[in-house]
Amino acid sequence: MKKSTPYLLLTPALVFTAFILVYPLGQNFINSLREVSMVKGTGGWVGAANYIRVFRDPLFLLSFRNTLVYALAGTLLALCFGLGLALLLNMKLGRITTFASFVFAIPWVLSPVVAGFAWKWVLNDNFGIHNYWLSLAGIVKAGTSWLGDPHTALFCVILARVWQFYPFAMVMFLAGLQAIPLEQYEAAAVDGASMIRKFFHITLPNLRSVASVLLVLGVIWSFNDFNMVFVMTRGGPMNSSMVLPVLVREYSFVYFDMGKGSALSMITFLLLVALSSLYIRILAERDAS
Amino acid sequence: MKRFALTALILVLAFAVLVPFLWTLSTSFKPLTEVDKSPPEWFSPHMSLKPYSDMFFYLPFSTYTLNSLIVASSSTLVTLCAGSLAAFAFSRFTFAGKRAFLVIFLLSQMLPGASVIIPLFQLLKSVGLYDTHAGLILVHSAVLLPFVIWLLYGFFQGIPREVEDAALIDGCSRMMALRRVILPLALPGIGATALFAFLGSWNEFFFALILTSSDATKTIPVGIGLFIGEYNDIWNQMAASAVLFSIPPLLLFALMRKTFVKGLAAGAVK
Lengths: 289, 270
Hints:
The structure holds 2 protein chains of 2 kinds. Chain A has helices at 5-32, 49-56, 58-89, 95-109, 112-122, 129-136, 153-178, 182-190, 195-206, 208-224, 227-232, 244-254, 258-288, and strands at residues 34-37, 41-45. Chain A is mainly α. Chain A has one domain: Orthogonal Bundle (MetI-like fold), CATH 1.10.3720.10. In chain A, strands 1-2 form a two-stranded antiparallel sheet. By secondary structure, chain B is mainly alpha-helical. Chain B has one domain (57-269): MetI-like (MetI-like fold), CATH 1.10.3720.10. Helix content of chain B is 77%, strand content 0%. Chains A and B meet through helix 1, helix 4, helix 5, helix 6 and helix 7 of A and helix 1, helix 4, helix 5, helix 6 and helix 7 of B.
């Protein structure tokens, strides 16, 4: 066996990684320091001017705030809902469990485009089924435009995001629950611990590592997510649901200002690097324990 | 009693969770005149398959479907080839920098689409691959690769080394052992990975949206994504296309659920 064999085997994968990650990130950094316009072509070096233009744009701060809310609220809600369903499925109720674990996972396998469409249609102000039910229950008046109202648009997108992400959390939590040694519960039962005590003293601590991985992965993925906002609101109305990935497209492919777009995507990338290093630290801690 | 209450709770939740999809399904069979009925109704006597045939007539959906099939199956093939070589290296060799390489692949799994799209767009444009199947296949393969490597790595690890050692003693070379011994044994795992890769490319929206422009290359998600908002008047056909497009993922998931969930869970609780 030659020493070079593993490296040869890795070569195709590394070429792809260079193509999708290394080259674009490098080129992106160069672009961010130049004037690059799809209309006028690549111009001269402008130093930090693109970055300054991004920071001066009030839309950047708004999108940054929205992205954080979207990523944090979406992930936390999905984790809570996923955990609840996992607990329910773990009660081993027979046939219904097999059925439910399939049905509960369905939103996960649908394309984000389909998910966005389905939610947009359900929430439609005039003909949506949610509005109809809510107005029947007397909670809102008929014709409430959830996606057309700047106060509720982002919330709607978060709801759709939760719908797509909770099944992943559910599957992971269920695997985590099934890995908890039964002896721990038996010992607690001998001590006469209540259901609630068992949950807080055995179940939750055992799920800590799964939960932290899910939290960080979920935040990173939502932070990167372009699809749901684009499909449901395109960032509107009045940019009230604008997030960073959609704004990058807006700068670069709507206003054709690729220099500014590149600067914004560099900033987004640096924020992600910070999140990723957190992820690696959590993984390392888990491996150590 | 408690069992009954829990079963009822599960059924209610299952329905609640499916409402958006079921409502889309219901809409997809309605004639246009009943789509915007208020109050909304789940069933109508005039339901038919007409929106499904209209959709192929009014929108270029047969071309989109063909594009999606070409891109998804080619990306699956390419990423499985590159991925199984890398996963084999990780699971059967010790070499300098192994951990670093693993971390690189782990990190590229979180690929920030928005941070790489502009240079990719420029690159594909300059080599003439913008708005081509080949360009999108390359990008999708690269996007899917890290997760494919992780899944295959797990499956390869599960194959006992003794089997392979026996093959080596019998005079097989390493590559022959990979082809004749490991690959057949890993076939179920490779199947599940292929399913994942196919779905990943089939459902992918962001890169497909920005790297294609003509109907001859657009995939189905791009078609649906762009029509939403622009054709607000044909909701029933939009719903029909969304339903039709969701059938392959749902079928594949129903068939391969166990293997897929097991592979994911193994990584989660280790």
